[in-house]
């Protein structure tokens, strides 16, 4: 009996530890589901192009309007068509709850935890935006946020703009836009009917949201002549795409790119069969998959012949009658539910036919470019290749040195690609309104004996909570210690962002109390480091990260615990850039490792 009681006691202790750990990580269980939206407040009654809407007053005293439709639902006959302007509603619309997320794979990173049919959530009817405005707002700067998620997960509802708006006297907008296969699908047979040509439906949605903002934002106290577009990761890439797109010219006036970089695809890559130079998930490849899955074709050859012979109406009817879930499941999700498909198709209308990045040099829009020092850590911290997990909650580094080296060099690559190379080129072209930052905050607490300051540090997306001043609304909010350092840095960062929205330059921040943020290469300085006084605080640096500087540092680095990791990093970074040098590789001691094994096809 004593033995049984001992085993029971041990079991209860283990169970208690697991429960405590889960509460620490995810928070206490909700009492009862609260599905009641806030009560409408008629001081928020506004007249928009879509009709009368009424929102509510948020706990911060911000006026809030959630789930405002800004285009017709892109469903049925409007699937894979440019967004269409709404007709005016004859009835007043209550905008006191978020609209549906765009259809996507379930992802904890996107704030979703409950699996839906086929692990899919959201709806095709998803073109909604959200607005927050401070009391008595008149002609205030507008900040329109484009969410990240690889253009295949996420939504505007993840980001609560109430604090940013109410405490800083700006109007904040967050938007949804079509994702994955519904946002990026260029099939030449469909494209021949549309002026957009390239199938960049996600970008066309963002343009439509900007048009809505221009035409309606005065009703919410915003200035249509002072709009800042800002976004993170894919949202940062989409921000750059807006600068490049002729359709978005004049619709906004400043831009902030957080951890974003931009690379376009040719129309043949986006549409052709893979063996003809197309992408593995090109539109023709996907149509062939769908034809095989629903038995409309018996072989790959027949599927190809069938779709190549179909007229526009035949293909359009077939594609628009298919359930959304059966379309999305043809794409296998990778990290965090994101899917790999051709994006930013340069077809000459939404994006220039020649290199779209060249358009950035013709723009005079003030631009902030930034990255986080430890970008890759977000994608490594739960990866079994790098971290062991016991009981699903206790994490341990497999090789801490290896982990830190991968994070360090990955962060350098991110900065070189998304910040320094572009800032340097723009400055050399004569631009004097380019600003760069690196976010270095890494003061997370330990979590169940796991050192998050090393495991995450200044990881991808960690900075967003500092900008929105809303640490409790982000998944993983317990990574933030909520201390004086965190509060100070959040206040300083918001002050820079808000001053940029007001004046087109971050300067010393809106309160004029921050260290001065100089444009790129002014007084020999390039990048503002964003950190707390514990780690030298906010300061300017003269560092420029280039591919050559990364290569030199990597080749001379003797601190790797495994030579294989050093060789893998050299091969993966420089093969993709066309900068791989066999002599350098062998001189680094890597001759025993075939570089081809490290480079994905």
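^ structure tokens above, recovered residues below v
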């Amino acid at each position: 009996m004593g033995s049984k009681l001992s085993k029971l006691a041990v079991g209860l202790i283990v169970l208690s530890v697991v429960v405590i750990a889960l509460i620490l990580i995810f928070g206490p269980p909700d009492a009862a589901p609260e599905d009641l939206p806030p009560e409408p407040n008629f001081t928020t009654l506004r007249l928009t192009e879509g009709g009368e809407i009424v929102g509510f007053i948020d706990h911060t005293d911000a006026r809030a309007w959630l789930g405002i439709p800004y285009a017709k639902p892109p469903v049925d006959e409007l699937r894979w068509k440019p967004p269409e302007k709404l007709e005016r509603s004859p009835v007043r619309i209550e905008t006191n709850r978020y609209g549906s997320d765009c259809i996507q794979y379930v992802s904890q990173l996107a704030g979703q935890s409950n699996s839906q049919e086929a692990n899919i959530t959201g709806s095709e009817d998803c073109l909604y935006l959200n607005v927050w405005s401070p009391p008595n707002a008149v002609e205030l700067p507008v900040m329109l946020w484009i969410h990240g998620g690889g253009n295949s997960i996420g939504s505007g509802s993840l980001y609560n703009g109430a604090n940013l708006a109410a405490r800083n006297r700006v109007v904040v907008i967050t938007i949804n836009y079509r994702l994955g296969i519904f946002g990026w699908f260029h099939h030449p047979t469909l494209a021949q009917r549309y002026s957009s040509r390239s199938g960049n439906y996600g970008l066309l949605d963002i343009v439509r949201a900007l048009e809505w903002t221009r035409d309606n934002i005065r009703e919410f106290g915003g200035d249509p002549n002072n709009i800042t577009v800002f976004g993170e990761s894919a949202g940062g890439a989409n921000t750059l795409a807006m600068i490049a797109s002729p359709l978005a010219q004049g619709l906004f006036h400043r831009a902030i790119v957080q951890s974003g970089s931009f690379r376009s695809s040719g129309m043949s890559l986006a549409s052709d069969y893979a063996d003809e130079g197309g992408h593995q998930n090109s539109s023709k490849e996907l149509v062939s998959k769908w034809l095989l899955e629903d038995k409309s074709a018996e072989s790959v050859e027949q599927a190809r012949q069938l779709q190549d012979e179909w007229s526009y109406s035949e293909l359009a009817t077939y594609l628009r009658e298919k359930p959304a879930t059966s379309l999305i499941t043809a794409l296998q999700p990778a990290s965090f539910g994101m899917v790999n498909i051709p994006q930013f198709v340069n077809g000459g209308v939404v994006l220039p036919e020649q290199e779209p990045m060249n358009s950035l040099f013709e723009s005079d829009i003030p631009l902030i470019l930034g990255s986080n020092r430890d970008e890759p850590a977000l994608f490594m911290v739960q990866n079994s290749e790098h971290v062991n997990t016991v009981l699903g909650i206790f994490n341990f580094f497999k090789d801490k040195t290896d982990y830190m080296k991968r994070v360090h060099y990955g962060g350098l690559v991110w900065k070189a690609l998304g910040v320094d190379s572009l800032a340097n080129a723009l400055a050399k072209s004569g631009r004097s309104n380019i600003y760069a930052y690196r976010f270095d905050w890494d003061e997370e607490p330990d979590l169940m004996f796991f050192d998050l300051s090393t495991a995450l540090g200044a990881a991808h997306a960690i900075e967003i909570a500092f900008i929105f001043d809303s640490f409790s609304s982000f998944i993983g909010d317990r990574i933030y210690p909520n201390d004086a350092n965190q509060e100070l840095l959040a206040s300083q960062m918001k002050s820079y962002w808000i001053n940029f929205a007001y004046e087109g330059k971050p300067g010393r921040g809106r309160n004029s109390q921050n260290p001065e943020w100089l444009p790129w290469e002014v007084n020999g300085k390039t990048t503002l480091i964003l950190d707390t006084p514990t780690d030298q605080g906010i300061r300017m640096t003269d560092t420029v990260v280039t591919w050559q500087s990364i290569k030199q540092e990597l080749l001379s680095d003797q601190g790797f615990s495994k030579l294989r990791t050093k060789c893998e990093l050299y091969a993966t970074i420089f093969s993709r850039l066309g900068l791989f040098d066999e002599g350098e590789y062998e001189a680094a001691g890597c001759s025993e490792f075939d570089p081809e094994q490290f480079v994905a096809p």
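The two ends are 61 Å apart (CA to CA).
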